[in-house]
Amino acid sequence: MIFELSEEHLAVKEAAREFAQKILKPGVIERDSKMLYPTDEVRQMGELGFLGMMVSPEYGGGGMDSVSYVLAMEEISKVDNSCSVIMSVNNSLVCWGLETFGTEEQKQKYLPKLASGEWIGSFCLSEPEAGSDATSQRTTAVDMGDHYLLSGTKNWITSGGTSSLHLVIAQTDPEKGHHGINAFIVESSWDGVEVGAKEDKLGIRSSDTHTIMYTDVKVPKENRIGEDGFGFKFAMKTLSGGRIGIAAQALGIAGGAYELALAYSKEREAFGKPISKHQAIAFKLADMATDIEAAKMLVYRAAWLKDQHLDYNQASAMAKLFASEVAMKHTVEAVQIHGGYGFVKEYHVERLMRDAKITQIYEGTSEVQRIVISRGVLQGQLYVPVAGSAAVEGG
Ligand code: CAA
Fold first, then answer.
1. What is the C-alpha to C-alpha distance for residues 122 and 159, in angstroms, rounded to an integer?
2. Which residue, by CA, sits nearest to atom 40 of ligand 1?
3. What is the per-residue burial (b if ≥16 Cβ within 10 Å, else e) of 173-195?
4. How far is the CA of 93 from the centre of ligand 1 (A)?
5. Pocket residues for ligand 1 (CB within 6 Å)?
6. pTM assigned to the model
7. pLDDT per residue over 367-383, tens digit each?
8. The dihedral of CA 79, 82, 83, 85: what is its sign?
């Protein structure tokens, strides 16, 4: 086994760190407080190639592997999780889903715009009454011959107010249950697409999360993704990779809080010495470091499995479950180490603590990850790939 990052990986990690610390950090508190969408920062992420990292160069992307993507997500998430969720949805749900399962025409038409950040993408699965129970889709798409008529409401849509392209999951044949679900590429400028108010959230406050209403939206047949009835599998396979991105976000949140707590504990003195020299604080730092290293192994391994075209469904669920629990637990500890200063915005850790919560909820709650993991456990799945393991198509 080789636990080593390549020179290229380290260069990506360093570039993302520099961008996060120099460009994102100065305005992040104000953007969070005032719920200001990071327009300029997202534009720069596009210019630097962070929005289409894994997209093939022939479609305008960076052609990088998932490990590179995870490293960039981790560094950006140490600072600004509104930017990193926009990045994650665009990369691993929208671009990856389109490139893996789209037609050549769909890829040529949409990927260059998405990979450059000229367009931002949204992934529209959740509904007011279909969150974890994702097969209960009420949004319908009626087959009208050369097009579908799409109607329904989607909830909690990241980049809902700013995205130009929506991947929308809808029921086309209720009698077939989840085999009668399809995924569609919908442009937000089309007639019948209406965006609701921006949600006022606990964390990731400057990303724009909206409800989107579709009323008799005419979707051309060529904008369906995959064979008729492929939509639910498309959503599950795509989310399986998306969860690696959110796991990396959680890892970054935990790592960012740890870095801040470590630095503060070396500066702040109490009872005649830096608080890091008190066992009460030193042991907290030890626990944080250990859990973060463990999360890192799960997250990097899930990305590596994906890069090797090996089954990563279980691994991504484990990575997201564990990393998000570590993020929540240790951002609370980082605030505690900062004492009263941790409770005010200026020291950044309270924001990371608020941001951590959503990583246990979106792209499948911790409970959903446990469903995925336990099903694999009961089927006796192995977690250490052995030479000659079968490759999988799209997870
Ligand atoms: N890959 C391929 N196929 C899969 C799959 C996967 N990873 N997971 C399930 N499937 C297939 C199953 O094989 C089954 O197909 P067949 O009947 O042909 O065998 C079909 O999908 C239905 O699967 P289940 O019977 O397992 O379905 P279920 O109703 O028990 O649900 C679930 C399983 C794991 C709970 C699923 O519903 C789920 O993941 N729910 C959470 C949804 C979610 O993550 N939502 C997040 C919204 S997106 C978001 O947050 C974006 C954002 O903006 C940040």
1. 6
2. 132
3. beeeebebbbbbbbebeeeebeb
4. 14
5. 89, 123, 125-126, 132, 134-135, 157-158, 178, 232-233, 236-237, 239-240, 313, 362-364, 368, 371-372
6. 0.97
7. 999 999 999 999 887 66
8. positive
